[in-house]
Design brief:
By secondary structure, the protein is α+β, with helices and mostly antiparallel strands. 31% of the residues lie in helices and 27% in strands. The longest helix has 15 residues.
């Protein structure tokens, strides 16, 4: 069995107060990308998760272990992940892999969203990749209609920016909004994105409160965003906690033209808004 694990893009990310559990209240708009990891699932003598080139604990392995702890009795599996989404790049690659593993048990295990939330803030939204308004620390998900077609150019800059470090830097810089402002932003996002518009139709709402903290830790982000604008991107934003800079374009042709002008080895062009 081959399973796709699409990357996700934060079209915006508004940061609220820190909660008692140490996580932050958020208001964000997620959309899936055509870019994603490819996962091969096959019967085996024992459970095994393989991801060549990625060191350390794999979130997909934790997802499989969590399913077993819940009593999932399907035969042992070998899960091999072909990484296509850059690692630690603010594109939710590990979360997408974990969600893809959880989807294997859909209809067989109760409360997959709760299980997903225990694995990471981005995992619940990736159980059903779609445009979604995401609140809380990632556990409150409101699916929205697919947006009008558009495309992106991604400049991941090698990834490797630690999410916890970016949030810590946001706290140090005093970045954050109160609950009323988050609620107001959620209402506005629901109205415009819920109409199926292209994100390029509401650029004023597409801000990322983690941009300044991420740029503090990785100054090259600023240069990447400026390069995208110089290449013709109508809008350039940071995805998630970075370091991926994203240029939004009306179509693939425009995105490919911009990528050619950038002449960067790390540039990735793909469609956005719909999972593959």
């Amino acid at each position: 069995m081959l399973v796709h694990a699409p990357a996700k893009l934060n079209l915006c990310l508004y940061l609220g107060a820190s909660r008692e559990d140490g996580l932050h209240e958020l208001c964000s708009l997620f959309e899936p990308l055509a870019l994603g990891d490819l996962i091969e699932v096959a019967p085996a003598d024992r459970d095994e998760v393989v991801c060549a080139g990625v060191e350390g604990e794999n979130l997909a392995a934790r997802a499989l272990a969590a399913l077993r702890e819940r009593g999932w009795e399907r035969q042992p599996l070998r899960i091999e992940i072909e990484k296509r989404t850059p690692v630690a790049a603010g594109l939710g690659g590990g979360s997408a892999d974990a969600a893809a593993v959880l989807r294997l048990a859909a209809g067989e295990i109760d409360d997959l969203p709760g299980l997903a939330a225990g694995l990471g803030a981005d995992v619940p939204s990736q159980l059903r990749p779609s445009l979604a308004l995401v609140r809380g620390a990632g556990e409150r998900i409101e699916p929205l209609p697919p947006p009008a077609p558009h495309a992106v150019v991604l400049l991941p800059d090698g990834g490797g920016l630690n999410t916890a470090a970016v949030f810590a830097e946001a706290d140090r810089l005093g970045v954050g909004r109160d609950a009323d402002e988050l609620e107001s932003l959620a209402t506005r996002l629901r109205e415009v994105a819920g109409a199926g518009a292209s994100p390029l139709d509401y650029p004023g709402l597409l801000a990322n409160d983690l941009e300044a903290p991420a740029r503090s830790l990785r100054p090259a982000i600023g240069a990447a965003l400026e390069a995208l604008r110089d290449a013709g991107a109508p809008l350039a934003i940071l995805s998630g906690s970075g370091p991926t800079a994203v240029g939004l374009f009306p179509d693939l042709a425009a995105a490919r033209t911009a990528a050619a002008a950038l002449d960067r080895d790390d540039a990735i062009v793909c469609e956005a808004g719909r999972a593959p």
